[in-house]
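Our platform keeps sequence and structure together, in a single record for each protein. Because each token names a local backbone shape, the row as a whole describes the fold. One such record is reproduced below, unchanged from the form in which we store it:
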Amino acid sequence: MKYQMLVLDIDGTLTTSEKKISPATHKALLKLQKDGVYVVLASGRPTAGILPYARELQLEDYGNYILSFNGARILNLRTNEIIYDKTLPADAIPILYEEALASHTGLISYEGNDAIAATEIDHYMEYEARINRIAIRRVENFPSYVTFPVNKCLMTGEPEHLVSVEKRLKERFHGLLNIYRSEPYFLEIMPQNIDKAASLQKLLSSLGLTQNQMICCGDGYNDVSMIEFAGVGVAMANAQEIVKQSADFITGSNNEDGIVAVIEKFF
């Protein structure tokens, strides 16, 4: 089997703990693209938070793609065409706002290149804005302000507290929204049937490839779907335990050029 696509999560996978791509990983990914293999970045980050890494890796020069918002949007970097775009139902926004106030959690979404906060800005929101290199601003009357389509909302809070919030939201929105944590302190609120695996299936079909020609690497809860779906699912050594249990192969950590080891072994 000759693998034709390598899909990478960003935080904790592609990047080191300092949110940087190591020189060895950068070199290996450039060579892989020159050899004709698709390199795709798939992240819960907004598009603006992925583009700097895509440019650093010259993905647009090789006709590659990014999946942002956990796969709710697929962007062709060469043409700048959005080839898939799934947004939250408008009537879910006021309910999510109500839930955030009732449960004392943070709530943000995204407008253009900014994060917009429905509630008081907490340190988790600030972290989300900082790692994505985007601004964050508080908006008044969030349900009335959000009159435009949004790909996702993000609730923030202490990990122990978000466990009960996640359970309640899953019960309330069962069959209507896809809800899961990408980090212990981030609760992703996504359109129904949207995750990284579902969007990668759409991308593969458009390129005439199959899942058996794809390798996916990740470390977090929101990477499990694509790791289970891929021909080879790879967990980083620093991955959550549930991710490792779902993987076919465990590579080195994000601080040990674990991606380079995957390229050397499978490509």
About this structure: The first helix runs from residue 10 to 14. The first strand starts at residue 5 and ends at 8.
